[in-house]
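Hi V.,

You were right to ask for the full record rather than a summary. Here it is.
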Amino acid sequence: MKLTPHTLAAALALATAALAAPAHAAIALGENLIVNGDAESGTAGWTGFDGYDLFQAVSYGDNWVKPSEPGPADRGARLFTGLGGQSAGYQLVDVGALTQASTPLAYSLSGWLGGWQAQEDNALLYVSFLDATGAEIGHSAIGPVMPQDRGNATGLVYRQDSGLLPVGVAQLQFSLSMERLGGGDNDGYADNLRFVLTPVPEPATWMLLGAGLAVAGWMARRRAG
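Predicted structure:
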């Protein structure tokens, strides 16, 4: 992952943000845990870091990404863009009720990130895996998407990361940041941000499934014979 100033800003702000942020009440496996990840509700659900402007939600078209330019097919009416030189916001989610079970959990972090033409303005989505004390015990990130990743064209590109959630995670902190590296506007773009947790089957479950498939195959061959 390329380390940029806004990546570092989100990481440095983590300690104070994790103490101050409210946790979301309703969470479930298989559902998107990022509130308003599609910007359709403006910036609701996101809190600005101290010392940084919160990004904004704007309509597709006009001076931003046009509906005809690259981006999600189900893009809706709005996307997130930056403000000022650097802008960042965060959400904190309490997942202790999900991670206390003995079943391992897999995560999938995804979203559409982009920028404007050949400018290097960009966006990054970072999730911190926090233990019960608020210490980071792991992380995942997508972005930044740079001009060469977009063919020097305005638009958004899909990015995804996945893996196993570390043992002992009690909270998740999502940090979205945009960085201006050229021009007058902060043209870091983001839309359709998602983070989903799903249970990982135990090895014994896979063995039983494999045995069942083998028996089914043997019975099919007998009937065919």
